[in-house]
Design a protein that fits this description.
By secondary structure, the chain is an alpha+beta fold. It contains 15 helices and ten strands. It starts with 13 loop residues before the first strand and ends in a 9-residue tail after the last strand. This is Apurinic endonuclease-redox protein.
């Protein structure tokens, strides 16, 4: 499929009722095909992440594969822990966040025997182990609160450690999401002490003082939103978490309004989680308005008028911002989530087309061996790479790497998972004479 050759008006497979607020609908055969494609891709990606986490007997293996200047399979080299990163282009904190994101993504799809074993192993260690060497992290307890400390530098003083609100929140999300997926409850006591730890290292008076970027703060919001969704209202710390979340959302909303350049796929995902988890109409209206503003800012336009029917500017604007041929799973995590709230036909159309392009071009499959070439037959199979995703050359050049990193796949799996949830809420319609090649 050539994405750029597709017409950017509403295609035969995408219908919009005449009324302004009428929901979008997908032509039945197209919806069936795209759901099959997304499900197959998600299965392959989850299987690949399972293999990455099983490359060694330790936890969180398979962080990054450096395939070298010659792109030869025999030269490929794995980095399995956060102390082995290339400090010229990476940090321990980012490594930890990416590994936790990947574990959560694996727990967010239907469990297989392999992924269940991996989730149980990792969750057990997260709950029981005072140290996690693979993440350069240890647990410190004080006054009922549990705080995770992380090494600042791989080659620095082992005792030079610091707490990270983003990591503390990501640990919460990973434990709660995987615990819920496994049908367990023993993680809830630990999660409560971890939340107390977050409240200790990241109280309200520190939100503005320690602000570094909207995206980093949005990552904390996203993690807490997912945590609140999965702990259940009967949890002993649900109310405290909700109160913290509501105040934090007000802070981020004020920050958002103060700077028109702020945008994050993490805040977009958080908005979707919060919108679906609340039943209060007033709160939903506010969250939906914020979602519209996310699309407006992403497109670089002051007004997009999402409720005014088909708008060709939307799809063109998205392509202009992220490129029709590049790896786009990062922003698609947010756009797929926003599509679930807005049900806007044009946004849904372009997100589906970009997602299909990412799967076709950037997922390693038998028909697409990826960037690694060499004399070894079927290197993707031998290295356990089948189903993984990789970035486009321009992005890799910007990041000064030639590697396959765990978040390259995790972000695509997250985007696909959210898009499948969105598709489940969109009705199918049969159209006479619908194109069969879509």
């Amino acid at each position: 499929m050539n994405l750029l050759s597709l017409p950017w008006t509403l295609s035969a497979f995408l219908l919009v009722a005449a009324a302004k607020q009428a929901p979008a609908a997908l032509e039945a055969s197209y919806k069936e095909r795209i759901e099959q494609l997304l499900n197959t891709s998600a299965t392959l990606a989850a299987r690949h992440l399972s293999k990455r986490f099983s490359l060694t007997t330790n936890l969180f293996s398979g962080y990054e594969l450096e395939y070298g200047k010659g792109s030869k399979a025999k030269a490929a080299k794995w980095t399995h822990d956060c102390l082995g990163i290339a400090t010229s282009r990476d940090s321990v904190e980012n490594c930890v966040l990416r590994q936790l994101q990947a574990l959560t993504a694996l727990c967010d799809v239907p469990m297989t025997a392999d992924s269940k074993e991996i989730a149980e192993k990792h969750l057990g260690h997260l709950l029981r182990s005072p140290e996690i060497p693979e993440l350069a992290m240890k647990l410190q307890k004080m006054s009922g609160a549990s705080i995770f400390l992380v090494r600042k530098e791989p080659d620095g003083d082992p005792g030079d450690m610091d707490a990270s609100p983003a990591i503390q929140a990501s640990m919460l999300m990973a434990a709660v999401r995987c615990g819920q997926a496994l049908g367990q409850k023993q993680h809830l006591d630990d999660a409560e002490s971890w939340f107390l730890g977050l409240s200790t290292i990241y109280p309200e008076d520190m939100w503005k003082k320690s602000f570094t970027s909207f995206h980093r703060s949005a990552m904390t919001w996203e993690s807490l939103a997912v945590t609140a969704l999965h702990i259940g209202k009967d949890s002993s710390f649900h109310q405290g978490l909700e109160e913290y979340l509501q105040r934090f959302e007000i802070f981020l909303r004020d920050t958002w309004e103060e700077n028109k350049e702020h945008w994050s796929f993490a805040s977009a995902r958080a908005l979707a989680v919060r919108w679906f988890s609340t039943k209060k109409k007033k709160e939903r209206v506010k969250l939906k308005q914020w979602a519209v503003e996310h699309v407006d800012r992403f497109l670089g336009r002051s007004q997009v008028h999402l409720t005014d029917g088909p708008n060709d500017r939307i799809s063109k604007g998205i392509l202009a911002r992220i490129g029709g041929s590049r790896y786009t799973c990062g922003p698609l995590q947010g756009l797929a989530s926003l599509a679930a709230i807005l049900k806007d036909a044009e946004v849904i159309q372009v997100v589906l087309q970009l997602m299909e392009k990412d799967i076709t071009r950037y997922q390693i499959q038998p028909s697409n061996p990826g960037p690694i070439r060499g004399p070894i037959r079927k290197p993707a199979d031998l290295l356990g790479l089948l189903g993984g995703f990789y970035r486009d050359d321009d992005q890799l050049q910007l990041e000064h790497r030639k590697t396959l990193r765990v978040d390259d796949t995790a972000m695509c799996l997250i985007a696909i998972t959210h898009m499948l949830e969105t598709l489940a809420s969109i009705k199918s319609v049969v159209v006479d004479g619908a194109r069969e090649d879509l």
